[in-house]
Amino acid sequence: MKTRKIYFVFTCLLYGLQTEAQDQLLQSLKDSLAAAPRTEYVTGTFKALYIVNMKTIEAPAAGALNVEIQHRFGALNSGSYELFGLDNATLRLGLDYGISDRLSVGIGRSSFQKTFDGYLKYKLLRQSDNNGRMPLSVSILSSMSYYTQHFPDKTYLNSTYRLAYTTQVLMARKFSRLFSMELTPTLIHYNLVPTSADQNNVLALAGGARMKISRRMSINVEYDYLFPNQVVSTPVNNSLSLGWDIETGGHVFQLVFSNSQSMTETQYITQTPGTWSHGDIYFGFNISRNFNLKVHK
């Protein structure tokens, strides 16, 4: 009987110690999670790689290929003989590939001045949505363009003179489920400019926003402000573009209205002669389609 009592007391003591140890372990885990919560990153700041003409902070996932078709008809004020611009068109075909979740690369060919372009984009910072540690996303973009159109009166245009370079800092924030905004300081360098009065290095500030109006639709707007007294030999206006995004499964289809017909940074930022007030509006569209090329083991 005495042995049974001792065994009973020992069992109760052991159970109490085990329960206390478990409680301490659970409390320790809770304290650890509370002290270092897992960072959740914001996704879908923009639904496509382009607001309209300007690139967004978005990039293809690692191993994914994005096919981009950008199409602009002629100006609406060209009259009925040109069917209000539908008889003329400019096209750009682009390919964007995600090397990693942060690094992407892209190439393109535009019919405007028969221009080739390429870029690298790296995401430096990602907006977090649970602790407010990072209020915005930041990407660095470096691109190059090379136009190949022949000009019989400009035989001096060699390959070096046809090159131009762009560096941009893409800063974006998703303020809510419905509204996102991006601000993009831009530096463009031209190896050749028309006159000595024009600047080889040109500064601009671009801004864009997206407002979601339904589950699969949004309205986009972008404006590219060219700082004055940099391009003086030819008339140039700031580019203003509107877009209507429609998501259809793996596609993003966008209707576009812009006073810029070209679609590369070195052209639409500094080579937009038309204005909205005079009817120099180019209607067109962008189509994005993603393909996953990553092989899953």
Question: What features would you describe in this structure?
Answer:
The chain has helices at residues 2-35, 265-268, and strands at 64-75, 89-98, 103-110, 115-125, 137-147, 163-174, 179-190, 201-212, 217-226, 239-248, 251-258, 282-292. The model is unreliable at 5-21 (pLDDT under 50). It is 13% helix and 43% strand. With 297 residues, the protein is mainly beta. The longest helix is centred in the first third of the chain and has 34 residues, at 2-35.
Give a short synopsis of this structure.
The chain has helices at 2-35, 265-268; strands at residues 64-75, 89-98, 103-110, 115-125, 137-147, 163-174, 179-190, 201-212, 217-226, 239-248, 251-258, 282-292. It is mainly β and 297 residues long. The chain folds into 2 domains: 1-36; 64-292, Porin (Beta Barrel), CATH 2.40.160.40.
